[in-house]
Amino acid sequence: MPVCWKARAVLPKLDAQRLSEALEAIEPPPVVSAFELGERGLWEVEAFFTEAPDEEDLQRRVGVAMRVIPIEDENWVARALEGLPPVETGRFFLYGEHSAKKVPANAIGLKIEASTAFGTGHHGTTKGCLLAFEALAKRRTFKNALDLGCGTGVLAMAFARLTRRPAVATDIDPLATQKTIENAKLNRASPYLRAATANGFKTPLIAENGPYDLVFANILAGPLMKLMPGIKANLAKGGHAILSGLLDEQANGILAMARAQGLRLVKRAALEGWITLVLERR
User: Fold this and answer.
1) Which of the ends of the chain has fewer CB neighbours closer than 10 A, N or C?
2) SS3 (DSSP) at 255
3) pLDDT value for 1
4) Distance (Å, rounded) from C-alpha 18 to C-alpha 20?
5) What pTM did the predictor assign?
């Protein structure tokens, strides 16, 4: 019996990003992923639904024809990730069970097992955020952090392990929230990390623990535009925001919104076709 249904489409990069944003806007939102195929700039977009969507209705809602197939009860994500190599980003070493013996003695190891939540560290957006955080941590200290759209909790855990300061992690997907809690325990970050399921900033946990010296937001451009006023409102004076999930052609629009909120660009970096922005609230 199928445990979920997958809708799939292959598109050029910009069209794939637009489709991802349209899928994220569906209520309730499916779990969405987008990956470069390495073939003439094409990207594969997948959306996972708990109930079978009607293909014609889905096309009317997102503007793209997507093939829907049932997914049987087998951990395909785990099978796909078994052979992935570990990821090193300076201080951090992200790995699965198959690479547990390879953790360098001086590295902060974060064990991320296969799951349906986003954030094994292999994606350019996650690596970009980690590198930006490490660069900031070399020149300033932090009291706390907020990780919006936490996925597996990689960024919140990295902050907690490096600084030993409190971090709040939230995601719209309750499965991601649960995975973050599990990973925090696995990686000795749970004393510093609290997680909640939330749409944007709509949880008391965020308000109770703010304002924040650092806000991570590794999400899509559309939701990021909507969340920008909240990011500014939850940043402490002199605080930093690390934003990713952006294509090059989307970054200027995000920067214009950020400047309108009084946020200054500190650094813009590109990695594997994705842009990471570091902003500061003056």
Assistant:
1) N
2) helix
3) 64
4) 5
5) 0.74
